[in-house]
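Fill in residues.
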């Protein structure tokens, strides 16, 4: 189906579109700027122009190193003017909250709009597997569900996470330390490939969440589903300098468990100063696996706050703090009452000199992180890092190199490196090659989790490292954009949670793991049809010479995932249909037991509400064939669910 979609799209690609260009205030073209519009990501050439299909009148977002982010409707003359950044910033650890990091400037990047960002307990989490290749989502655990995302066969803890440059990766388990809720963020940028040369923990990739800017219009939404779940939220600018976004939900789990969650994000920017504060909270019933039913509840809360300041002379600084807590109470199969808390504080200084023949940025960073709990105990460590990035243009070729060295108390040093070259071959084709060396330290859970009936930690774990090479190409012409990425990675001492003979999950180092695969994606944006699809083929195998499982696939890594979303606007009404599939997943290291493949069919219908400007309604159905499947061993997937949502956006 995906191949047929690409063939059909190419036949419609003969439509030419006006050029869109990006300039600085003096009128000089800006090369290497990134444009995201309608799910298509493209880069400006030496003359500042972007390849089709984006045209005047389309909505988009443009970012470039050293300039403030631009978002809005492309002007009728096609010219977008970027303002210089108030804060001269580096690239390794961004401090402006106005542009993506360097890790997400390449071609192996997917831009997810606000409606596509998965939210715990809200139907439709698997949609992101259609919008981005190389990604697998598992949702399980109850109403306040665990939303596990994997990139290129990685564990969820092997992804670097940030919000506008502020790190939100938990030191306790490596996943986001905050609850991700629909409505708090304007977009998600997902970069595949080694990223720890730019951010800690990004062994397999980096996910960046962006807050809406103070100039974006006010938005509200409210919805509910056929299982009894409900959600609502609003995001509004405040005085042209700040913005406040709030959301609340009451989700229902696959087995009927109930939950409550909410969050608020406040951001402020004036001149060389910017800040943000994010507060989240959730609680609800836990739904255990079929093989171990339980009666339990869980609660989580967090607060993050960050500031950034430009000091002149090419220097800028950032500081942030995070605090979070989790409570778990079980009645059966055994009484448990556990409380965990975690926190982090970091400060960084960035120097970006001007007047050099190439772009250079250097960052020094110090971070302290700690955890405490009735079961986990108290642990802390301090991390110090220095990073540098340099990039230069040679005609249509953009070259960049980044390196990062990190030291930690009571642990050995780690280092990351990334080299890349991006070539714009004419108006329609871009090609990129990259080589990265990444690392990740064990989380506190992996090291110190006490033995219980389900899991235990491993204090003897070593840090893991990975060397990855990938080549990506993107073709854009008329309404069509299609891309392909090939990757091959060798990971040493890869940390994997796997069940032991007694069924207890325990992390361990696999001396060598080979990851390789191909990722395809395509987007068609025509007046009568909009389509987006992806396919991922991958092999994640144990390559240890001394292992009895040499050549075997690692557990819970599907060899194939694919999906397609098609929408056909008709007189303002937009019907849509989606299809996604996930291949077989081995349940053990010996590859003798597998979870079967499954497919999900979805449908949607959106339309404006007559008489109320800016108001629209969307009706949707997920898993409409009511397929029975398991997200992971013993955790049943969400059954057929219908939903309705009202959305309102203030008109300019």
């Amino acid at each position: 189906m995906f191949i047929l979609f690409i063939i059909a799209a190419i036949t419609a690609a003969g439509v030419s579109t006006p050029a869109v260009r990006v300039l600085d205030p003096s009128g000089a073209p800006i090369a290497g700027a990134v444009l995201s519009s309608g799910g298509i990501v493209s880069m400006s050439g030496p003359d500042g122009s972007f390849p089709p299909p984006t045209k005047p009148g389309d909505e988009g977002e443009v970012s470039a190193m050293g300039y403030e982010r631009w978002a809005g409707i492309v002007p009728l003359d096609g010219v977008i003017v970027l303002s210089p950044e108030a804060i001269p910033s580096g690239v390794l650890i961004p401090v402006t909250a106005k542009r993506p990091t360097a890790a997400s400037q390449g071609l192996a990047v997917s831009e997810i709009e606000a409606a596509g960002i998965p939210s715990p307990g809200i139907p439709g989490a698997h949609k992101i597997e259609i919008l981005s290749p190389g990604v697998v989502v598992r949702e399980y655990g109850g109403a306040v569900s665990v939303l596990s995302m994997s990139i290129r066969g990685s564990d969820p803890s092997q992804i670097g996470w940030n919000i506008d440059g502020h790190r939100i990766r938990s030191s306790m388990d490596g996943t986001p330390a905050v609850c991700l809720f629909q409505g708090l963020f304007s977009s998600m940028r997902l970069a595949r490939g080694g990223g720890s040369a730019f951010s800690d923990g990004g062994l397999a990739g980096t996910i960046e969440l962006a807050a809406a800017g103070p100039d974006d219009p006010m938005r509200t939404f409210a919805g509910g589903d056929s299982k009894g779940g409900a959600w609502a939220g609003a995001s509004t600018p405040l005085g042209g300098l700040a913005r406040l976004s709030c959301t609340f939900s009451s989700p229902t789990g696959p087995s009927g468990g109930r939950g409550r969650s909410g969050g608020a994000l406040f951001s402020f920017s004036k001149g060389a100063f910017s800040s943000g504060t994010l507060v989240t909270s959730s609680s609800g019933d836990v739904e255990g696996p079929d093989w171990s039913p339980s009666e339990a509840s869980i609660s989580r809360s967090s607060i993050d706050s960050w500031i950034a300041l430009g000091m002149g002379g090419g220097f800028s600084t950032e500081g942030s703090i995070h605090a979070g807590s989790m409570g778990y109470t079980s009645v059966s199969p055994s009484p448990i009452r556990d409380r965990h808390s975690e926190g982090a504080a970091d400060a960084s200084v960035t120097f970006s000199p001007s007047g050099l023949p190439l772009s250079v940025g250097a960052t020094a960073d110090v971070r302290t992180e700690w955890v405490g709990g009735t079961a986990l105990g108290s642990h802390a460590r301090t991390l110090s890092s220095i990073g540098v990035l340099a990039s230069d243009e040679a005609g249509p070729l953009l070259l960049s190199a980044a390196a990062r060295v990190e030291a930690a108390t009571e642990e050995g040093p780690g280092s990351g490196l990334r080299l890349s070259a991006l070539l714009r071959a004419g108006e329609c084709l871009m090609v990129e090659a990259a080589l990265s060396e990444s690392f990740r330290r064990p989380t506190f859970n992996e090291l110190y989790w006490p033995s219980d009936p389900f899991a235990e930690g491993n204090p003897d774990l070593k840090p893991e490292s990975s060397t990855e090479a990938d080549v990506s190409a993107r073709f854009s012409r008329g309404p069509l954009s299609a891309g392909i990425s090939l990757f091959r990675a060798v990971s040493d001492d890869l940390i994997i949670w796997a069940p032991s003979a007694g069924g207890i999950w325990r992390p361990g180092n696999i001396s060598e793991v080979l990851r390789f695969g191909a990722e395809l994606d395509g987007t068609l944006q025509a007046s009568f049809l909009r389509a987006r699809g992806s396919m991922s083929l991958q092999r994640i195998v144990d390559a240890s010479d001394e292992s009895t499982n040499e050549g075997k696939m690692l557990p819970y890594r599907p060899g194939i995932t694919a999906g397609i979303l098609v929408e056909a606007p008709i007189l303002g009404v937009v019907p849509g249909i989606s299809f996604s599939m996930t291949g077989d997943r081995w349940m053990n290291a010996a590859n003798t037991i597998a979870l079967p493949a499954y497919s999900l069919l979805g449908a949607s219908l959106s339309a404006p509400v007559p008489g109320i400007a800016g108001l629209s309604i969307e009706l949707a159905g997920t898993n409409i064939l009511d397929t029975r499947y398991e997200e992971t061993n013993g955790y049943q997937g969400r059954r057929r669910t219908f939903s309705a949502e009202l959305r309102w956006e203030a008109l300019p």
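Residues 1-16, 86-104 have pLDDT under 50 and may be disordered.
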